[in-house]
Amino acid sequence: MDYLTLATPDDWHLHLRDGDALAAVLPDTARQFARAIVMPNLKPPVTTVQAASEYRARILAARPPGCAFEPLMTLYLTERTTPQTISQARESGFVHALKYYPAGATTNSEFGVADIWRCLPSLEAMAELGLPLLVHGEVTDPAVDVFDRERVFLEGTATRLLERLPALKVVLEHITTREAVAFVRRGPPTLAATITAHHLLLNRNALFQGGLRPHHYCLPVLKREAHRQALLEAIASGGSRFFLGTDSAPHARHTKETDCGCAGAYTAHTALELYAEAFDEVGALARLEGFASWHGADFYGLPRNSGRVALRRQAVEVPALLDYGADALVPLRAGGKVAWRLETTAPAAPGGC
Ligand code: DOR
Ligand code: ZN
User: Is the pLDDT of residue 349 over 60?
Assistant: First the structure.
């Protein structure tokens, strides 16, 4: 298959940052996706509906002219989040989920949750109101090997959360292991997972290929090839509880290429093209539309997009550097090529740019 069309996709896990950085990266996502679930790990984090409303207004203002891209906002769960905030979030109509960062697990997670059971009243309110909990599923115990942190989280906290709150909708974000794939498969219909393009395309060798590769460093960290194969098998199976979430996470070049580099891979620039490579690798291009354009919307209870985009098999060069406000940004595959070209088809997709 050298040409395919699909309903305009959505990105169910995205970091847009703020200010000049937001202005720099937003067009990349808006070119490809009609909507995106926007992560709240700003400094300070987005913990109130008021802050989410203001952040949303800044995102809308940063859209290229004529672009109908819709940001789907999230709140950052803390131990001080109240059930009242949960009701306000539901009533707002623009807050679609809460994000649970175990404190210390990743970038800007220091205000996150040390003890999830202190959030129980809020989680109960979310279950009742149908607001999903988006989970960064890694334990933070420094004694646990960094490659095992997802599995240990699933065996402990995640298992207990699902038992205690069977009505709560949960999305395990950016899953990276065969254990996570199995956990989602045997879980209830209220449980789903996003998968990134970089975890589908790279294994942990990519961190050390010819030297230390900071642009391949993200959290959860890349895993062994056997785990990547399990993720590929999940997308190839067409399971409706697996969907697209890029976790595109821009960091200025000098904060990645340094003594203690930030975690995050920037993929928004060629996100759908990278996913097409992964689906092609397992002969499953026919499953891409479900993963990219249907399953997430269905899980969140939102309408599927009516526009369409097309992908043509054609090598496209990826720039070595992108603008990032006053800084530079190194995208995944910088200076290399992607195997697909994204074309928006006529009529112009509502939501597309
Ligand atoms: O690699 C990552 N980068 N993982 C995360 O969980 C956060 C993200 C970021 O915000 O940079
Ligand atoms: Zn993320």
Answer: no
